[in-house]
C-alpha cells in the first residue's frame, strides 16, 4: 500500500528549493531596458514595415526615459550599508550590487543612450532613410543592394540591438561576481559587433570593422575567461566580496592571483581601448556608422570603466601594490599612443578614435591614483568620484563631436577626410564653432567640461601620491591640445579644397544631440558643482 | 590504482589522442568525426568525476547538436570531402605552442586550486542534476536568465545579416 508514496529523498529535495530572491525594484532600470529590447523584437515581427521606424524609435525613447526615472527612484531609496561610506544593496542572490556608483553610472549610460537613440533615428541626412544599411545581407555593389536602396529599405532592428547592448552596459558595472560580469561583457559586445557592420555607405570598410572588432573582442573575452578561471582557482569563489577576503588574507604574491589579475585586466582594458590593446579602436571607430561610433565611444567606455573600477577596487583592492605598477605603465602608454598617433591622422573619425584612447589614459591616471578617502567638506575628491565625473564629461563631448561629424558631408556621404574640413568656418561658422568648442573641451581648455574633468582626475591622482603620472599626463595633454587646435586652424584659416565641405541641415533629432552635448560641455565646465556633488554622494562601492 | 582511476586514465588517453587526430587528419569529415570521439570521451571523464548532468549535457549538446551542425555545414557548403594536404598550414608550430601554453595554464589552475579536494565517490553530490539545477536557478539565476537575452540578440543579428527580403518586399 505504500507504493504510491514518493521516495522520501525526492520529496525532501523538491521541498528544499527556495525561490531565489530577486529585488525587482532595485533592478527595474535593467529589467525595463531588457523589456524594451524584447518589445523591439516583437515590433519587428508584427508591425507593418512603414510604421516600424516610428514605433521602434518611440519604444526606445520611452523605455529609456522610463528606465531613467526608475534609476532616480532607486537612487533615492539606497540605504547605508557596511562601514565604508557605501550605500546600496546586493541584489539577485549576490549577482548585482546596486550601490551609489552603480546608480550614478546607470544614470550616465541611460542619458547618453537617450541622445544616442536620437542619432540612430536621424533620417534627414541620407534623404529619408536611416544611416544603416538598407539590407545588410545584400552584398556591396550588387543588384540586390541597389534595389534595396531604391526601395528605401532600412533595418529597424538596430533599435532592439542597441537596447540589448545597453542592457549589457547597465549590468556590466553593477555585476558583483565574475560570471555576471562576463555575461554582461558578452551582452554588451555582441550587438555592438553587429551594429558596426551595418553602415549604409562605405560598406566594405564597415564590414571589415565589424569583423576586426568581433575577432579581437572574442580574443579578449578569452583572456577575460582565463583570468576568471585563475582567480577562481585562487579564491575558490566568483564573488567579488569573497575574492576581496581571500586577497586580503594572502601574504606575499600568489602567481595564480597575479596571473588572474593580469588576464582580467587585459579583457577590460581592451574594452576601454587602452594601449597596448587599442589596435581595434581607430579601425572600428572609422568603419562603424557614425551614430554607432558615438554610442560605442561614450557608453561602452562608461560601462567598461565602471566594471574596471569595481573589479579592481572591490575585488583586488587589498592587492593594489601588485597591480598599480602595471596600470601605471598602461596609463602612460595609452596617453602617449593616443596623443602621438592622433597627430598623424588624416581622417576625422580616426583622429577622434585616438583622442578617445588618450582620454582612456587620462581616466586611468585617475583610476590608479587610488585616493581612497577624501576629507568631507573640502574640494578633495576620491579617485572613484573623479573618474565618475570624468566619464560624464567625456561621454557628452564625444557624442556631440561625432554628431557634428554626421552633418558635414559631400556627395559620397560623410566627409571624414580632414582635408575636406578645411574652410568649414566659412561655409558654416555655426557648425565649425560648435565643433571647435567640442575640440577645445577635449583638449581641456578652462571653462569647458574637459578642463574640470581633467582637473578632477589629476588632483585626485596627485593627492593619492601618483604625482609623476600626473606630470606625464599634463605634458601629454599639451601634446594633445596641438592636434585638436590643428583641426580648428584647418577649419577657420585654410581655404576650401575643390568644392569644399557642405553642411547638411539635420532634422531636429541630431540638432538635439548636438545641443545637449554642447550644453553639457558648457555647464559642466562653468558650474561643475552639482554633478561633482552627485558623484561625491555616490559614495563607495558596497560588497 | 583503483578501477575508477584506470577508467579515467583510459578515457583521457582516448580524448587526447582523438583530439590530436582532429587537428592532424587531412579529411575534414574525419576531423569532425574524431571530434565526436573526443567529446564523447570527455563526457565519460565527467561521468567518472560524478558530474552526471554535465556529462549528459555534453553528449546531447556537443556530440549531438554541435557536431551534427558541423557536418551539415560541410554538406551544404560544398566543402571538399576528399583528403586535403593543405589543411595543415605553415603556422602550426606557433599554434601548437599557444595550445600547449593554454593547457599548462589551465592545468596549473586546476592543480593549484583543487589539489586538496577529494571526491567521495560513494555520496558525491557535486555534479548531480539536482545540485546543478539548484545552483543555476538560485545562486546564478540572474546571469542564467540574462544569457537568454544574449542568445536572442545573436539570433536577431544573424537574421539581419543573412536574410534577403522577398522580392515584393511587403513582409
Provide structural commentary.
- The complex is a heterodimer of chains A (543) and B (171).
- Chain A is mainly α.
- Chain A is 69% helix and 3% strand.
- Chain A has a three-stranded antiparallel β-sheet with strand order 1-2-3.
- The termini of chain A are far apart.
- The model of chain A is unreliable at 1-13 (pLDDT under 50).
- Chain B has 171 residues and is mainly α.
- Chain B has a domain at 1-84: NADH-ubiquinone/plastoquinone oxidoreductase chain 6, subunit NuoJ (Four Helix Bundle (Hemerythrin (Met), subunit A)), CATH 1.20.120.1200.
- Chain B has helices at residues 3-24, 28-48, 52-76, 92-114, 129-139, 141-162.
- At the A-B interface, helix 2, helix 5, helix 6, helix 7 and helix 8 of A face helix 4, helix 5 and helix 6 of B.
**Gyration radius of chain B, rounded:** 21 Å
Largest pleated sheet of chain B = none
Helix and strand content put the structural class of chain A at: mainly alpha
Q: Would you report the number of β strands of chain A?
A: 6
CATH superfamily of the domain at 1-84 in chain B: NADH-ubiquinone/plastoquinone oxidoreductase chain 6, subunit NuoJ
Give the CA-based shape of chain A. Answer: globular
Number of strands of chain B: 0
- Low-confidence runs of chain A (pLDDT<50, min 5 residues)? 1-13
Q: Mean pLDDT of chain B, rounded to whole units?
A: 84
Protein name (chain B): NADH-quinone oxidoreductase subunit J
GO cellular component, one term (chain B): plasma membrane
Family (chain B): Belongs to the complex I subunit 6 family.
GO molecular function, one term (chain B): NADH dehydrogenase (ubiquinone) activity
Amino acid at each position: 500500500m505504500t507504493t504510491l508514496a514518493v521516495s522520501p529523498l525526492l520529496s525532501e529535495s523538491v521541498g528544499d528549493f527556495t525561490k531565489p530572491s530577486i529585488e525587482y525594484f532595485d533592478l527595474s532600470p535593467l529589467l525595463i531596458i531588457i523589456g524594451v529590447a524584447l518589445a523591439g523584437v516583437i515590433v519587428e515581427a508584427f508591425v507593418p514595415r512603414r510604421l516600424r521606424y516610428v514605433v521602434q524609435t518611440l519604444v526606445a525613447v520611452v523605455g529609456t526615459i522610463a528606465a531613467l526615472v526608475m534609476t532616480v527612484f532607486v537612487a533615492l531609496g539606497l540605504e547605508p550599508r557596511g562601514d565604508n561610506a557605501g550605500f546600496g544593496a546586493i541584489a539577485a542572490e549576490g549577482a548585482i550590487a546596486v550601490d551609489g556608483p552603480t546608480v550614478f553610472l546607470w544614470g550616465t549610460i541611460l542619458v547618453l543612450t537617450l541622445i544616442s537613440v536620437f542619432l540612430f533615428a536621424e533620417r534627414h541626412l541620407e534623404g529619408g532613410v536611416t544611416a544603416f544599411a538598407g539590407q545588410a545581407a545584400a552584398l556591396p555593389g550588387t543588384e540586390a543592394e541597389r534595389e534595396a536602396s531604391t526601395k528605401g529599405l532600412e533595418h529597424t532592428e538596430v533599435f532592439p540591438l542597441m537596447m540589448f547592448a545597453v542592457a549589457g552596459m547597465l549590468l556590466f558595472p553593477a555585476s558583483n561576481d565574475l560570471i555576471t560580469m562576463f555575461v554582461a561583457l558578452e551582452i554588451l559586445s555582441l550587438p555592438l559587433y553587429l551594429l558596426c557592420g551595418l553602415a549604409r555607405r562605405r560598406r566594405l570598410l564597415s564590414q571589415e570593422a565589424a569583423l576586426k572588432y568581433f575577432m579581437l573582442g572574442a580574443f579578449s573575452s578569452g583572456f577575460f575567461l582565463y583570468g576568471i578561471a585563475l582567480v577562481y582557482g585562487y579564491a575558490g569563489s566568483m564573488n567579488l566580496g569573497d575574492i576581496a577576503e581571500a586577497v586580503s588574507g594572502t601574504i606575499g604574491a600568489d602567481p595564480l592571483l597575479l596571473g588572474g589579475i593580469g588576464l582580467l585586466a587585459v579583457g577590460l582594458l581592451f574594452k576601454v581601448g587602452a594601449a597596448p590593446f587599442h589596435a581595434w579602436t581607430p579601425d572600428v571607430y572609422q568603419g562603424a556608422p557614425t551614430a554607432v561610433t558615438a554610442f560605442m565611444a561614450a557608453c561602452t567606455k562608461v560601462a567598461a570603466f565602471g566594471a574596471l573600477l569595481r573589479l579592481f577596487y572591490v575585488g583586488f583592492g587589498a592587492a593594489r601594490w601588485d597591480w598599480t605598477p602595471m596600470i601605471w605603465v598602461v596609463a602612460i602608454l595609452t596617453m602617449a599612443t593616443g596623443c602621438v598617433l592622433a597627430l598623424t591622422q588624416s581622417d576625422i573619425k580616426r583622429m577622434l578614435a585616438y583622442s578617445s584612447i588618450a582620454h582612456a589614459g587620462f581616466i586611468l591616471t585617475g583610476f590608479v591614483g587610488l585616493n581612497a578617502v577624501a576629507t568631507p567638506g573640502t574640494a578633495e575628491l576620491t579617485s572613484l568620484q573623479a573618474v565618475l565625473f570624468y566619464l560624464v564629461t567625456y561621454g557628452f563631448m564625444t557624442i556631440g563631436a561625432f554628431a557634428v561629424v554626421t552633418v558635414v558631408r559631400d556627395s559620397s556621404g560623410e566627409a571624414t577626410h580632414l582635408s575636406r574640413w578645411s574652410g568649414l568656418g566659412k561655409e558654416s561658422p555655426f557648425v565649425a564653432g560648435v565643433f571647435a568648442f567640442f575640440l577645445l573641451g577635449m583638449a581641456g581648455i578652462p571653462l569647458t567640461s574637459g578642463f574640470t574633468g581633467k582637473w578632477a582626475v589629476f588632483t585626485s591622482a596627485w593627492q593619492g601620491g601618483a604625482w609623476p603620472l600626473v606630470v606625464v599626463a599634463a605634458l601629454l595633454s599639451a601634446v594633445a591640445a596641438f592636434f585638436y587646435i590643428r583641426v580648428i586652424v584647418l577649419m577657420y584659416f585654410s581655404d576650401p579644397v575643390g568644392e569644399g565641405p557642405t553642411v547638411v541641415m539635420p532634422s531636429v533629432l541630431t540638432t538635439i544631440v548636438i545641443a545637449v552635448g554642447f550644453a553639457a560641455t558648457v555647464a559642466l565646465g562653468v558650474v561643475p558643482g552639482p554633478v561633482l556633488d552627485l558623484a561625491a554622494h555616490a559614495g563607495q562601492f558596497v560588497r | 590504482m583503483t578501477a575508477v582511476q584506470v577508467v579515467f586514465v583510459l578515457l583521457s588517453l582516448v580524448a587526447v589522442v582523438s583530439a590530436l587526430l582532429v587537428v592532424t587528419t587531412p579529411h575534414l569529415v574525419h576531423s569532425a568525426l574524431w571530434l565526436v570521439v573526443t567529446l564523447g570521451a570527455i563526457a565519460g571523464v565527467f561521468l567518472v568525476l560524478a558530474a552526471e548532468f554535465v556529462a549528459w549535457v555534453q553528449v546531447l549538446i556537443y556530440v549531438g547538436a554541435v557536431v551534427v551542425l558541423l557536418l551539415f555545414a560541410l554538406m551544404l557548403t560544398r566543402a571538399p570531402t576528399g583528403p586535403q594536404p593543405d589543411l595543415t598550414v605553415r603556422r602550426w608550430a606557433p599554434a601548437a605552442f599557444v595550445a600547449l601554453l593554454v593547457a599548462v595554464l589551465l592545468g596549473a589552475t586546476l592543480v593549484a586550486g583543487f589539489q586538496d579536494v577529494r571526491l567521495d565517490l560513494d555520496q558525491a553530490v557535486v555534479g548531480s542534476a539536482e545540485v546543478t539545477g539548484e545552483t543555476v536557478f538560485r545562486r546564478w539565476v540572474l546571469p542564467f536568465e540574462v544569457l537568454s537575452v544574449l542568445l536572442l540578440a545573436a539570433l536577431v543579428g544573424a537574421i539581419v545579416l543573412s536574410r534577403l527580403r522577398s522580392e515584393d518586399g511587403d513582409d
